[in-house]
Design a protein that fits this description.
Length: 387
């Protein structure tokens, strides 16, 4: 069910309050409710109407001054002996404005002093105390208290709206920042994918091209086989690059199933073996229970480790061990190549370590014994398996 809301400009609200006050005072003055001894209304007494109404037109700038001045004008009117026009209704707009401006204490204090003074004076003047205290006083208190409460409620509502707008703006900024963070994270991951694919493919093509060059004249069959490996590696690299670029354009995250995983390590090791580096794969455990993100990461770690060996090492043999247990996946890549000079981790190893760390695992790499060794452990938590 729709709700209709009327939104009036602030100046329109001021005019309505001033008009209502002027109308009430005009009606009461015109009714000529003079009692014994009251002074007849003259042009000076009629100034009460524009005075109280005019003050409400400027009520937003000095609300406290408007209230005190309005009270003073009404007291001067009564001090001059003019007929009664009431107390609460002529001043309700001023009390409302003061509370709306947040001056609750001033409004309550002024109202209390004014009501007490007026009724004490009227009782001292000989008016019926029981009628004043039992009939008029409660209505006066209700009207003034209602005006103060209404002003305070409006102020609180406006403040709540401002806070809601600020919270909405802050939430929108946070969502935007989070979206940018996710996009940046995804781009970094895609950049690592592209690095891994290109590095692996270039290493394979380099080795196969060398074989083809050396055997072109003496062993054409081997040269043709090497060229076939180059073509296969190139097509595989193009497929993965197209997939990575599609993810980059669409903003797709890694919730999509990865193309390559643990079960694709056979083809990976065959590439390196055919390139002249004997590569042995030992795989243990139930690979089908490995989460997609972990599955892809295992492949990338193995690919990067083998590619680094082909690029930078004199190794003739590489051993790749993948052990899948109930709680973790362990990857060990060891070659028999000699590492010369000072060794420091490059971008490939840093990228591997970051990938593994994203899944809560650890990775170490460096020279060990008679070769180079890479070891990674990725936990298989319940939440990871369900991802």
């Amino acid at each position: 069910m729709s709700r209709w809301r009327v939104h009036l400009p602030l100046t329109a609200v001021d005019v309505l309050l001033a008009a209502a006050t002027a109308l009430y005072c005009t009606v009461v003055i015109t009714a000529d409710l003079r009692g014994p001894g009251d002074r007849p209304i003259d042009w000076i007494g009629c100034l009460l109407v524009p005075a109280l109404a005019g003050l409400l037109l400027i009520r937003r700038r000095p609300p406290a001054a408007v209230l005190l001045t309005s009270v003073g004008v009404l007291l001067l009117y009564y001090a001059a002996g003019y007929p009664p026009v009431g107390l609460e209704l002529p001043l309700a707009g001023a009390f409302f404005s003061t509370a709306e401006a947040g001056r609750i204490r001033l409004a309550v204090t002024t109202g209390t002093i004014l009501v007490a003074f007026a009724y004490i004076f009227r009782i001292a003047d000989g008016q019926d105390a029981s009628r004043l205290l039992g009939y008029e006083l409660p209505s006066t208190i209700v009207i003034l208290a209602g005006a103060i409460a209404a002003g305070d409620a409006l102020r609180s509502r406006r403040r709540q709206r401002r806070e809601d707008r600020k919270m909405a703006e802050l939430a929108a900024q946070n969502r935007e920042q989070e979206a940018l963070r996710i996009v940046e994270s995804e781009r970094n991951r895609i950049a690592r994918d592209v690095h891994d694919v290109l590095g692996h493919t270039v290493a394979i093509i380099q080795l196969q091209a060398g074989i083809a060059s050396e055997t072109m004249s003496d062993d054409p069959a081997t040269a043709d086989e090497a060229l076939t490996h180059i073509a296969t590696a190139s097509r595989s690299a193009m497929d993965e690059l197209q997939f990575s670029l599609a993810r980059l354009r669409s903003g797709q995250d890694e919730s999509r199933e990865p193309v390559l995983g643990i079960n694709d390590l056979d083809a990976l090791t065959e590439h390196f073996t055919s390139s002249g580096i004997t590569t042995t794969l030992r795989r243990r455990g139930e690979t089908h229970s490995v989460p997609a993100a972990t599955d892809s990461t295992v492949y990338r770690v193995a690919q990067e480790a083998l590619t680094n060996t082909a690029r930078h090492s004199t190794a003739a043999h590489i051993t790749l061990d993948v052990d899948v247990s109930a709680h973790q996946v362990c990857i060990d890549v060891h070659d028999d190549g000699h590492v010369s000079g000072d060794w420091y981790p490059g971008n490939g190893i840093i990228g591997m370590r970051e990938r593994v760390a994203l899944l809560g695992g650890t990775l170490s790499a460096g020279p060990r014994g008679d070769g180079f060794h890479v070891h990674a452990t990725i936990p298989l938590t319940r939440s990871a398996v369900q991802t």
